[in-house]
Structure formats: C-alpha cells, structure tokens
Give the backbone structure.
Amino acid sequence: MRLPHDCLILVADGRKMLLLRNEGTSDDPSLVVDYGLEQPNPADRDQKSDARDQRPTVGSPGQASTGEVDYHRQAEDDFAREAAAYLNALALRNALTRLIVIAPPRTLGELRRHYHREVSARLVVEIAKTMTGQPTNAIARFLVAQEEVG
C-alpha cells in the first residue's frame, strides 16, 4: 500500500493510541508520532471491590440473574470512544485528509460506532490487527506490504 505524504495512521487498542503522520513520500514513508495517549486499565478483577459491582439482569420471566459489570471492557470502550472523538475533531477542522486505522477487531467496532461522517469520508482503510506495541518503522513496513485498496 502506498502511504501518501501527510496521511494519518491511527494505531490503537483499548488503552493506547498513537496517531502517526507520514512525513516521508509514498515511495519512502517516514512515520512520526503526531499524538499519543495511554490509559492504565487494570484487569477487571482488580477494578472490582465487592458484590456491589453486580447488578440484576433479566433472565427468564419471573427470574433474575446476576450479571457482573466488566469494568476493564467498559474502560476499553470508553477509550475507543475518546479516540474517535479526537479523530472527529481533526476532521471537522480539516486537519485530517486521509486516514488509515489499525486496531483489534473489537476496538475497530467501537471506533466505527463513534466516527463522524467527516472521518468516514476520509477513511482510506481499516486493518483489524493489534500493533500498538510495534515501533513506527515496523508499522510502516507492515502497511507498505499490504495490498492496495480500492
């Protein structure tokens, strides 16, 4: 895949996001970090303090079961929503022309739920993969190795 100059690449998961910009050329990309954010998100068991974290859910008629709140997953979804809000703000002030998103499938789904139509219009491709722990040169190599889209 060719990465146009100034193309933005969001690499995110449920607790970390990097917004990279190609400051190189399509033939020789050079990804630099434009923005980064990481949020601590302990395991769900570490976020629960007692049985008050349980709430009744509806089972079969006349019965109730207890469903636990998954705080870890909830925090990941909130983080994805914040990442989408950041992209929305960029798109609405025309600071975003082309966007590539790399995120695990669940995070991608949550991001999509919150994209403004201006972000969707600038979206080149979404790739369902976890790459938040990779260095920028590895991300660039990965993207260049991808087949062309469209």
Summary: The helical segments are 44-47, 71-92, 105-114, 117-122, 136-145. The first strand starts at residue 8 and ends at 12.
